[in-house]
Amino acid sequence: MAPQLDRFPPIRACIFDMDGLLINSEDMVTQSTNTLLAKYGRPPLTSLIRAQMMGITGSTNGDVFHAWAGLPISREEFAHESREEMQRHFRNCTPLPGAEKLLSVLSQARGASGDRIGLALATGSKSDSYELKMSQLETRRLLGFFQPRRRVLGDDPRVHQGRGKPAPDIYLAALQSLNSAVGPGKKAILPSECLVFEDSVVGVEAGRRAGMRVLWVPHPDLAAEYQPVLKEVLAGRTGMVNIGDEDQRVEVDDGWAESILSLEDFDYEKYGISVPSKP
């Protein structure tokens, strides 16, 4: 069943994940991990294991990875080596195709009411790795589209510890940051008026649990791995991580989420977003 997008509230805000969506940091995680796996005579990450790790903070220290990897060293030793390896790679992160252009256009776009579209960032990255990933000039330019208070990180005090994605908390905190700047006489932005941009399965679930519409822009490997259960992914019902809160679960194939191949494919008109005319 095709989504009937005209039956939804107009979009007033767009909230973006960062890793694997705006920048190629997920590929850096894979490179770093494969380097260490080779060091200890283990095979590179499979597409399935990689898919299960994407979007989950500290995934290389988790049960799924270590049960598969069978490393001859302790988790603590691997975590130390992994952190050092990733720090070297994170300094070389670059924007993904379409990221800067999309943010540039949205920063000038308006919704159906004529008001500017609000922009916020909601990333599971913690401050130290975030700074490394955004250290290059071309990645740091992306931050210019988000006001500082509208950047919510994985260790932000506005998000309770242990409530990362797929919990909805980080997206609700991002929405709160947008509403804190809503002018006098203006109505607060509702979750249903937000469009979340995500690349990970757990991120899609977080956005859906927050009551927001979601656009899934997965890595090709991830898209291929989850194609058989695409409808469940878009509904946030894969059950990858059990966090309870079953009352936040939504219906499959309800039209609140869809998938596109790249940020370059975003259809502004489809979401009722008016973009400035070219000079």
Automatic annotation (TrEMBL):
InterPro entries, per the entry:
HAD-like_sf, HAD-SF_hydro_IA, HAD_sf, PGP-like_dom2
Alphabetized SUPFAM superfamilies for the sequence? HAD-like
Q: Which GO terms describe its molecular function?
A: phosphatase activity
Q: What is the official name of this protein in its record?
A: HAD-like domain-containing protein
Q: Which source organism does the UniProt entry give?
A: Staphylotrichum tortipilum
